[in-house]
Amino acid sequence: MIGDQIDRITVDNDEVWQTSFIPWLEDKERAGIGSQDGVFVATFNSCIRTVRPTSEEWFLDLCLQRRLSSVSKLKGISHASPGLYTVFSTSVGGKVFDSFRKKARELQSYTDDTCCSKILKQGTGLEDLFHHFESEALQHAPPQAKTRGLESARTIRHLHDKFKSDVSTFDWEKRMKTPPDECPEPLCARYMPEDDRKSDTWPLYGFGTELPHEAMRITPNLSLSRIFNILWLLPHFYPGIQSSYTYLAETHSYFAIHCEDSNLWGLNYMYLGHPKIWIIIPPDSASWLELNLKRDSPISDAKCLNILGHKTLFPSLSWLKWNDVTLTELSHWPQVVQRPGDLVVLYPGTPHFGISTGPNICEAVNVATLTWIPLGLNAKKCDCMPSSVHLDVSLLATAFRPDLWTSLVNQKIVVTQEMLQEMNQLNDAVCATSPIVRNEPVSCPAPQCPISFLVSDYPHMRDMKMALIKHVKSCHAPLLHSENLLARTSELFPLQMGKSFSK
């Protein structure tokens, strides 16, 4: 079953959560609840929830009339790298906004089966659900888009040579238009064809910020925007971090892979609707994930130090498998099936992405604990996204962790034992997969076969692996099952990138 392997706890009592939530969270951290996966789920007993079947209509009215401030269309398009999609989020208004609001008001839509919820109920597995989702909600770029950047470069060089010798014909006024008539960047949202097969079926999602005098409540004593934590002591206020955002999803809505701003704790509670599927990358695999994303993503994303803060990339399960994106001994990625009453708690620095199987309403906020301060100090900063948030944690470090201040001033970075462990794992991963670091022959696993492969002959370890599999299938087909050759071939390569080649 999807999502069965993560830690879950039940909350049966309504506490004075304004002041007791952070101590409760710190207790779970000390107990190691979800620490390996980077996530756990707290399910609130239905008897203490404020949103029940009798109050759902009132709750919908609150969300749609008071909180729905924006609706966006999600365009996920795969360009150069198979299985990695670039996500464009475009605000919509007018009839599209009104239609979204009208559909979101239909209470029955939050319980009626959808195409995704039917697949989830069948229990056929995560791959089937995501295969359906990709075919319905995502799209591969038209062939010409993949070569558009090269064509643009040739055009620029041609124009340079032309006007360099005679600039009298250069159209200065045309070039002063803002924006240009046609953007040469192949990943520009302006370039996406509006008459493609999904132009009217791209999924939508809505969101809104909290009104100061109307905080939503999970229980009579718990509001995500009224959890006292050290973020409230900062001199600046950040909506969506200290205060919550409300998210309204429809079938096939999704969110791109990302970490929470400044590596904060993430809280996400579902009030109403169909399940949301989360894919979690354990925190100690985040650096390896970043390296793979930078390799396969557009240059505009890859050049940034904080690519996981962009929220513009959506990986397929096949892309994750192909790149072995996990350094842990887990045989699968942590998966969460979030249902009404579930509070998803994300540890600091945990990459995550996911999809909605139908209409639902969730609320999200960030909090901080004292153990988060070193992670906040070292959080990577993004300078290329105007909406990027980067907290100045030095004030909190001075107040609560003066032991870190000397290292911060002298070295500009704070290194903890957990960070050292992740650095060592990342070093092992790079050494295990780099054609420069390792150049050892890998022999065919078939008995008495003299063929061997060198890493230096292939641009990437996965290419050598595919070449070896092709050799085994074509030259040793009769032995595939009797000698278990495919399994033995896989054992020659690290299932998790923290392992090295077998000798």
TrEMBL record:
GO cellular component: chromatin; nucleus
Annotated InterPro entries: JmjC_dom
GO molecular function ontology, one term from the record: histone H3K36 demethylase activity
Domain of life: Eukaryota
Chain ranges of the JmjC domain: 200-384
A Pfam family reported for this protein in Swiss-Prot or TrEMBL: JmjC
Gene3D superfamilies hit by this protein: Cupin (2.60.120.650)
Example of a GO biological process term: regulation of gene expression
The protein's name: DNA damage-responsive transcriptional repressor RPH1
Biological classification of the source: Eukaryota, Metazoa, Ecdysozoa, Arthropoda, Hexapoda
